[in-house]
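WARN retry 2 of 3 for item q-0093 after timeout on previous attempt; input resubmitted unchanged.
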Amino acid sequence: MIRSTKVLFCSEMHGIGDVTFPPLDELTVDSFIAPPSTRQLRREATIAGWKCIRGVDYCEGCMAAKEDAR
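OK item q-0093 returned
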């Protein structure tokens, strides 16, 4: 049996998988048995401070840095 789940990867400084939503160490068996839809995952990430701009995902830390740079 093959199962999969969805995970967002920060596209800024963390493009190699250092920062993900949800964090990889927090994935459970339930994450694979009943994975979230893309819409649900993005909604939860937005609540956690992530943002998707023109199809590129940014973690809460990168978004804070971008807003501080303005």
